[in-house]
Amino acid sequence: MNIIQLNPSITGSRPPIQSWPGSAPPSGYAAVAPDCDTSAMQTHNGHVDLTIENGVVAAIIGNDEAYQAYLASVAPDIEVELAEAKATRIQQSKDDLESYLEAHPITWTDGKQYSITREKQQQLTSKILSATLAAQTSTPYELTWNATGAECTPWTLEELAALAFAIDARVTALVSYQQSQEVAMQAATTMEELEGVTVDYDTVQ
């Protein structure tokens, strides 16, 4: 015989109908009539009411109120999901920017390529500052810089400053683009709008 738990749990649901080998159901359970429609157990996830006739379950009816309450309790918080998705997308755009800077050095007037990563920008600024202070104090200083994958070579302060300005302009354009896309992501009110915000650094001129 098939049996079902008589009393629902605290959430209003019953466990799935079970097969029982005995001639009588165990305590707390009732036999389910062979012709009883049990589909409500699936459609309402166990949130059902029982109609019992002569000790046997003759009907299983979905409890809509209990089922809707259950759905509300397990439904994801859309606002929380959207906020988390925004944070993930924004951080990804920043990480992608760092990777893009590393993979896309700038080609200078000498035909060589020069790194534009954050670390290299800081080193370049430090070099220029040191060279400027040396010139102001008449201190001997050999100003050098290196192309990607090459050894350092002598540079004049004017030449290196021009490279620094070109790198700054390129990086500023890329950072501004990332910031504009971040603003668009923050403004999204649905997951669809958020997914519609693309980040393609190759489009930045």
Word description of this protein:
- This protein has 205 residues and is of the alpha+beta class.
- The protein has 2 domains: 2-71, no CATH class; 76-203, no CATH class.
- Helix content is 47%, strand content 16%.
- It contains 6 helices and 9 strands, in the order E-E-E-H-E-E-H-H-E-E-H-E-E-H-H.
- It has helices at residues 40-43, 64-74, 78-103, 118-136, 157-187, 191-195; strands at residues 2-5, 18-19, 29-32, 48-53, 56-62, 106-107, 113-114, 144-146, 152-154.
- The strands form 3 sheets. Strands 2-1-3-5-4 form a 5-stranded mixed β-sheet. The chain has a two-stranded antiparallel ribbon with strand order 6-7.
- It starts with a strand and ends in a 10-residue tail after the last helix.
- The mean pLDDT is 95.
